[in-house]
Amino acid sequence: MRKKLSAVSPMAWAALAAIAIAAAGLRFASLGYGLPHTLNADEPHLINLAVSFGGGSLRPQSFKYPTLWPTLLAVFYGVWFVIWSVFGLRKSPLDFAALYGFEPTSFYLIARGVSAASSLLGLYVLARVERRENDSRWPYGALVLAFCPLLIDLSHGAKPDSLMFFWMTCAWSCALRFQSGGARGWLYGAGALCGAACSTQYTAAPAALIVPLAWLLRERGPAPAAWLFQSIALAGAVFFAGSPYIAVDCRRFLEDWADYADLGRLRPHDGWGMAQSVAYNLWTFGGDGSPAGAAAILGLSSLAWRRTRRAVLLTVPIGAYAAVLAMSPDGAWQRYFLGVFPALALLSAEGLTILGGSGPLRRAVVAAAVAVPGLLLSWKFVAGLRQPDTRAQAQAWMASHIPAGETILLDQPHASPRALPSQEQCADLAARTAAAGSARSRLWRAMSDRHPGGGWRVYRIQRSPGDLFSSPKHVSASQADFDFLDVRPGLDPVRAVRARWVVTSSFGADPRRSPELATFFSELASGADLVREFPFEPGRIEGPWLRVWRLRR
């Protein structure tokens, strides 16, 4: 039965409102950082996919990500087109594609805004879960994640992680409701939401254990096996509804995943070192210096004594994640734990409730101890996003110092200043990608037809899958859609395309990491003049350290 021990005081409501405003502010502040440049290499891939869906086909060029997130973005972009074009009366779809090619800032802002809103909605659901059985309880778990640096960071990216966090928070809410004796509809809801989460981000898959666990660990008598099978079937149906071409083109999906498995061969796997990284990510899920990890251990000990089944439900998926990530060559990223962040926060809340007791002053002290470390780290992160960006500085310098029509060699788009390809190059790329059957040909054609004039012939340094730590097939497909230059022999290929300018980036190719590029960098230092540098300065200027070189004739 729901306990109503005490009403929430006006002071408590004021504190909750302040926390909510601060959490929202940290997520929405500086959403446009760096744009139209992006510091994340995955953002352009996902936005490209969403824009391509607007062209009439939901078939993805790659299954690196499931497709629910870009499909949702395509819907938002459709609404944006209606508004921007005045219902298509003032502008055409070709103009809209050209807008994305030349001025993509609005597309990224929409995606980042949806990401930030998803993160906030996840916090709201988590707070409701905490107060469901006892409305006098402080939502310590939601407080931990309100200022979690990882969630603040992910809210500023056009990636599916925040939406997956929202789906999984809802799934945990339904699973816990069923496990405590709720109707079977809650189990069905947990299954459907897990399917949506997996269709948003594959990393949600281990968290789907909550469906059979909630059924197995139900506190008010056993549930029929049919309920479990129906929930699993519903999860699968929702997953394929969000990513239909995984079923339609299953062979290519399996080929892409086999390609992704090649990552394990690109770098040696240190099992012990990876296990240490995974353990550290669990301990610091609330941020470095946060007591949330220690509180989660205390909460687990308390819950295991009082409600063993609930403790097992919360803990087993966390253990599954830890085991899978420790065996993965790419398991050191903390964001891969997002599917069990709600469980970690709930365990931490159990421990913090014990420490906070029932006195308002003691509760306030515990809440401050939880909130302050994450708040300071998140504030530092957001403040850094407001600083000037080296790539924007370099872009402005190039526009005023490098004549239009010249040839420039750059690194990856997210690591380099933005350079407008000439109309001639856009037309060449449109023809080449159309012949290859690439969906990107439509974008190059729009940019060629609506080109504003000017621009350069732009090449990019061809880098290996091992250097980029990305699957070989995906790297090959991405490089096929643009002009990449193999510079392993040195400067001869650069001179062969008559490039006079080279821009190197601290976020890009590095001979220490890629020995095959050592000859190129050595000849660049001896055969070119360093014309301009745009240094990264902590606390003052963000972005990569950029160097502009001019080749000697």
SSE blueprint and pairings:
Layout: H1 10-28, H2 42-53, H3 68-84, H4 93-102, H5 105-130, H6 140-146, H7 149-155, H8 161-179, H9 184-200, H10 210-216, H11 225-242, H12 245-248, H13 250-261, H14 263-266, H15 271-283, H16 292-306, H17 308-326, H18 341-356, H19 360-385, H20 390-401, E1 407-410, H21 423-435, H22 441-449, E2 457-461, H23 465-468, H24 472-479, E3 484-485, H25 492-496, E4 499-505, H26 518-527, E5 528-534, E6 546-551
Parallel strand pairs: 1-2, 1-4, 2-3
Antiparallel strand pairs: 4-6, 5-6
Helix pairs in contact: 1-5, 1-7, 2-3, 4-22, 5-6, 5-7, 5-8, 6-18, 6-19, 7-19, 8-9, 8-10, 9-10, 9-11, 15-17, 16-17, 16-18, 17-18, 18-19, 21-22
Strand order of the largest sheet: 3-2-1-4-6-5
Mean of pLDDT: 92
Number of helices: 26
Number of strands: 6
Note poorly predicted spans: 1-6
Roughly how much helix do the residues carry, as a percent range?
A: 55-70%
Biggest sheet details: 6 strands, mixed
How large, in whole angstroms, is the Cα Rg?
Answer: 25 Å
Beta fraction: 5-15%
Q: N- to C-terminal separation? A: 83 Å
Content-based structural category: mainly alpha
Q: Assign an overall shape.
A: globular
